[in-house]
Amino acid sequence: MADMKLGVFDSGLGGLLIAKAIEDNRPDIDMVYLGDTLHVPYGKRSKDAIYDYSKHAIDYLFSEKDCQIVLTACNTVSAAALRTLQQTYLPDAYPDRRILGVVVPTLEEAISSGYKNIGIIATEYIVESDIYAAELKKLDPSFTIHQQATPLLVPLIENNGLKWVKPILEDYLEPLLKARVECLILGCTHYPHLMPILRDILGDQFPILSQVDIIPYKLNDYLQRHPVFDEKIGKNSTKEYLVTDITRGYKETALSIYNKEIEIRHVKP
Ligand code: DGL
Fold it and tell me: How far apart, in Å, are the Cα atoms of 51 and each of 8, 13, 221?
């Protein structure tokens, strides 16, 4: 049987940060990245729309790209659609494949780090969905989480506006620091771009939990615990990068993440 692939799905190009981190960690794995740039940002869409868009894209990764596992790098998809996709779509459509999210592995990392009072910054959708608080309660109710919606950050990052971020971020972080959070989760694919500014505000020692660090190692752990899936995924170092729309500045965004040009192809799932 031909080799299968690992799919990495995001609402746009932000998830390339996680794809690159996975590649750095496991360069051998055959991987396909799909960014739904036609519909980004998902954060302002309804739950039904996010479900439909992500189901369509993930179905394409399974049916056309032979993905054994699809990792949704997008927090918004993890909050709005993951459970339903796992419980209703997958068992009928592809019972022997898997869709993984980023919320639970991120919380597991926070818990294993021992920080009892957790802070998170995320899009409005994520905070309103309460997904992080709900999942944390299931994992370990003795931990508390303080959530701060940070709606201005994605537009600023996407529009080359990092120079305006610091005072906005200071304002957003104030309630979390007042609540004496012991660590900060970056609950959005885009936020690792803010690391230097966050370090400037919080200092070098403050624990910042970034999915760029967490997800590649959690994925490896998952593959080790599920060798039947791992064996099916090809180890020929092939990479494919796909988008659903050719958006302005996509090449520059990819270049800033990869520090080299990568070939990005337009597909219509
Ligand atoms: N990728 C999304 C996330 O991680 C942020 C961008 C969007 O709203 O689509 O939540």
Answer: 16, 19, 27
